[in-house]
Amino acid sequence: MRKLLCAICALLCLALNAGAADLRPPLLLTGSIYRDSQDLSGAWTYSKDLYRTGLTDINGWVAKSRMQRYRDIDVTAEEAKGGVGFYEFDMDRGPQMNIPGAWNAAQPELRYYDGLIWFQRKFSARPLRGQRAFLRFEAANYRAYVYLNGKEIGRHEGGFTPFVLEVTEALRGGENRLTMGVDSTHDAQTIPTPITDWDLYGGITRPVRLVYTPATFIDDAYLHLNPDGSIAGTVQLNGPQAAGQQVSVKIGDLADISVKTDAQGGATITLPPPRGLQRWSPEHPALYDISFSTAGDTLRDRIGFRTIAVKGSRILLNGQPIFLRGVSMHEEEFGPNPARNMTEPAARALLSEIKQQLHGNYVRLSHYPHSETTLRLADEMGLLVWSEIPVYWTVDWDNPAVLRKALTMQAETIYRDRNRAAVILWSVGNETPVSEPRTRFHAAMAANVRALDPTRLISAALLVERHKANGEDVTVIKDPLLEHLDVLAVNTYTGWYGDDKLADLPAMKWQVPADRPLILSEFGADALAGYHDASMKKFSEEYQAEYYRNTLTMASRIPTLAGMSPWVLKDFRSPRREHPVFQNGWNRKGLLSETGARKQAFDVLADFYLHH
Ligand code: GCU
């Protein structure tokens, strides 16, 4: 135990000395969707590079120039000159792909491509006249190498979080050539590792924008409601005139105050409880138009104000107990060939099934940070959110560099989403087998969340154990991570994996800590939509529906149950699932098929939520 404690201390020091300031991305451009920007979505050319010849030559030497896709050249024009030089790529005459969207859905030959692909698009920027320009990438899975007009401007690791690169100096008048290498390869030191239960979806999966700002601009602003009803927050300027600036903060028609930035261009905001504040809730998702303005710049956002806390075994939203009626969801749009292109209509189609059809108030956005589009829609529609980074099953727990990646991904997520009232839970892991290194890793992640965002709750989707006590079958939660969590959560598949009979589920006993809320973060069973079997064979809709009925009866008997997010809203792609009749590369635990066909179990859950 002593060894564990000093090891946790060591990791906490590592985590805390990589505190919020150290992990804050250098540029955030919060609220960039409201800023003056050019959306670079559309047709990009691409060039496969499975052997990474554009990055390195054999033996790790610098890549041969004839392979460097990012070069600022017109290959056709070069070839027209004749001579001895030649190229083994041409980004102008290459095939095209619609961006954003994963390459797996773009071409049959790319369906299972796992490696490096170079993308390029040309664009004209306007003359800056003293302004600054940035490229903001909402996500690229998994590593990104970005070049503008032949110069490397930055790199990023992580498939689900945004990054911002300044291009003020690299931009030129007229046509610019943006080249981006995206390498989808995962390994034992990535987060996640290659071992997951979802499809790869490599490439530029979310929008890319060219954002213009004044020389000194408001890079980030954050507001939240305190338990006493006051409002607190921060604002951070970036640029030569960041220090000593007056910042006017308007919150709808509720408040209009002014703060002055310090020598580092930052300021904290505190507001007494505004009269007439409408708190955000799933029933009344009140959002306020917020503006932060200096003499030269304005940052806008739409923010809801609510409080979230735990008291004993209850989750309190705005001081009132709430039961989280939810479901888990991957970032994958409806349709037979999804590209993980989460447009607003695609996200609305998914979230409406939860809100309107299932009568839900909550969604577990598993197993990685979802698109900002989805988060903003959850704010607008009134769905509480569980957010997580893909520390999933196993990662290299003893590797400080891997921990640093996890803490960085947490920071990128929290800085991106902390203005979203919908987000109430930061989860630090999913189904990670208990070991000392794993618990140290998660403890450091929990400490990191507390340092970055003390206003929200911490959870993790844990594994359960089954014990026999007095001849009874008891499900037990025993995990050293419990002490770091505000809300307990477990994934349980009794009745699907294993040989339990569905009829035995309702009577199954649970032994859980009485002092904390419990969420059933996953339970589920596969069913192929349209496959019916009166004898309820597995993979039939009837089996899945009976599984739900009996699991819901069992769940209702857990005294500390505060919510659930059954696995999963809709069937999703997974190369782990290859039964040639029932699966064909789809995980069929959806309550809906991939094309949106409702299965019988959908109505079982909808009815349960309607009456709970
Ligand atoms: C696990 C895991 C999910 C997976 C599910 C399943 O609980 O968290 O990502 O898809 O089980 O087996 O279908």
From TrEMBL:
Key word Cytoplasm present: no
Protein name as it appears in the record: Beta-glucuronidase
EC category name: hydrolase
Glycoside hydrolase family 2 immunoglobulin-like beta-sandwich domain mapped to chain residues: 228-306
GO BP field: carbohydrate metabolic process; glucuronoside catabolic process
Residue ranges annotated for the Glycoside hydrolase family 2 catalytic domain, each copy included: 308-585
PROSITE patterns registered for this protein in UniProt: GLYCOSYL_HYDROL_F2_2
